[in-house]
Hints:
It contains 15 helices and three strands. The protein is mainly alpha-helical.
Amino acid sequence: MIFSYKAIDSTGLERKGNIDAISIDAAISSLQNRGLIISTINPEVEKGGIFKNVTLFSGVKNKDVVILSRQIATMFEAQVSALRVFRMLSGETENKVLAKVLNEISDDIQSGNPISVAMAKHPKIFSAFYVSMVKSGEESGKLDQCFMYLADYLDRNYEITSKVRGALIYPAFIAFTFLVVMILMFTMVIPKISTILTETGQEVPFFTKIILAISSFLVTYGILILILAVVGAFFFIRFAKTDIGKNSIDEFKLKVFGFKTLYRKLYLSRIADNLNTLLLSGISVVRALELTAEVVDNRVYERILKKANEDVKNGSAVSDALGQKKEIPGVFVQMIRVGEETGEMGGILKTMSTFYRREVFTAVDTIVSMIEPVMIVSLALGVGILLAAILMPIYNIGSAM
């Protein structure tokens, strides 16, 4: 439950904000542990109706977290205290959601909690991967390096993800444009032309009859088709949120023609980059595999990494654990084996991450260069055939007159 409060801190300044607790007593106890004197505290009315749990727009973008990480790293390098760092950033950031979170983190740090524990209370902004990196930095005394590693990692991850997303959006936009043009032609243009052809009483070609029949069907049942499409999309989205749906979609990504190679390289790049960043921060291999499984964003590779994690716990080498799966290419396994034998696992993973990231960019460029002319030609042919089927009878009518 969320409680809004007003309180006085140790310096006499008024503080206000929200706190998440299981009861009002727990909220009061938590605030008092922070050294605050409570003046008012009330449960906050939940807003948003059926959309209150939707977190598509959390208010904090990847860019905000990258900038924040770099700012924290710079301040720690300048020997600024953790409490002052987060107090300063909470007052300077323009993002109100992030400012509120940073303020709450500051309160937790003032109460004696480590930075990692304070950040772990905000999983929508700071992932388990992020929190573990910060915890490693606290244990090693290298928080400035840790936050710089995180900023670089988030930059690379955003770059490669946005590249792939952009490649998928373009063909989707072209296909949507094609669909809209066809619907407008069938429901607005062809019915008017159909009236002209019907009034002449002349025989029309068989292919033109097919076009006219499709047009008549869409005009008559268009609303019903639209309703069915919306209902189908709703149930598909519901299905996609279930475990079975997520598994099916992730497996489909690795099988669909034209995109399976792209997705494989994307996930391999992400795995290599995650493992490299975690190992570089001093996190154990077992924990690195566990965290990478959580952020790889594909159920197939998540299961592979979790199984590899169990095998490593039982004494297997990482290369042997990953080498049992067909989704992990032989060259990836061999490179990891070389890293294990030479003690240069971090360097090898960094090399593979860079290699697969370039491969993803190349694959994206190739797909876009292939899709663009195919979609444009398909759009032109579709409209051309449609116009030919309608205009030729009209031309014949004009010739007969």
